[in-house]
Each structure stands twice: as C-alpha cells, then as structure tokens.
Amino acid sequence: MGNETTARLSMREGGDINVVDDTGRTPLSYAAAKGFQAVIELLIETENLNLDSMDPRGWTPLFWAAENGHEAVVKLLLETRNVSIDPKDFWGRTPLSMAAQNNHDTVVKLLLNTGKVDMDSRGYWGRTPLSYTAAKGYNTVVELLIQTDKVNVNSMDPRGWTPLFWAVDNGQAAVVKLLLETEKVNRDLKDFWGRTPLSIANQNGHKAVAELLSHT
Q1: How far is it, in rounded angstroms, from Cα 214 to Cα 216?
Q2: Where does each ANK repeat begin and end (predicted)?
C-alpha cells in the first residue's frame, strides 16, 4: 500500500494528523524528510495541521526537508505562507544553514528568495552558513549567499576565523577566488593566534591559494 493511500485511509478514519510518536515526530515530519510530496499535499489540505511541530532536537518539517534537499517539499511548505521560515534548533542552526551545509543549492535559493532568513545566523560553534560552505568548497552555494549582497563575508567565529580562513585552510581555491572578488573580504585579518589566511595557506602547502592571496 502506497504512502498516499495510507495517509488517505488514516485521515478518513479520523486519525490525528499531528500525532507524535516515541521519537517526538509527526507524520508531516517524516513525509518532509522522505520527500513524499503527495502525502504532504494531502496533509496541507486538512484543518489544524501543525506545520511547525518541533521534535526533541528542535527540528520542524521544514528542517527535515531542507536538510535532505527536497526542493519540491520545501516549496510546498513555503507556499502555505504559514510555516516558520527561519526557526532555530537547539544548536542554533536554521533550515538555511542545514541546506547550505549539505550543498542543496536549489533549496538554499528558495529560502533566500523569501527574504526572511538570517544569512549570518550562527550555530552552536559560532559559525555561519557561509563559513561552513566555504570550508567544504560548495561554490554554487557560496555564490548564492554572496550575490544577496547581505551576507557578512568577514563574520568571525570564536577562534577568529572568517569564511576566508576556512576556505584557505581546506585549500578551496575556487571559493577563495569568489570571496576575494567581492572586494569586501579582509585578507589581512588575524585569528586569535595571530595567524593570517596567507600564513595558513603557506603552512598547509596550498600554493594556488597562497598565490591568490598574494596577487589578486
């Protein structure tokens, strides 16, 4: 029996659409995580659906859809106009930060287009979505964030590292180039140990990155 059929039968029999299981999650939470678009469409049509039900980690259905890159589901949830777009979980993360960290560029674009997300939101470790994506070399997501012209390219985490530091440390030359091209990045900043992006590039043997920092 398909997921959609099961959902229809449960709803017809008067099942609680907001029922929470032993893990603290609702049917909408599971459907969003799995990308079951048809099931979500059915649930959204019902009355009294809690779009922002939170599980024990503080994740709403939008978190689960964003983290797993389900673009169609994220779009459905956003189109209800009743979903919380920028909630924070218990580690300070948002749907945007989870989509960005997992390189789901289409989901990132959907969330950015709402104009209602904090692009510089910081998680438990004090890092922003740009910090994480710069470290991982997710060029497209980095470009999307930069193109908003609203992201702080020099945001510092507790160790004094900006997104440039993270890109340099991991040898992400393409990201380093993107950041430098904004002409807003401070390449001479020092972290809490007195190191600069250039000194870290040299220390790690990232010659292409060191050259970008020296000559761009």
Answers
A1: 6
A2: 23-45, 57-79, 91-115, 159-181
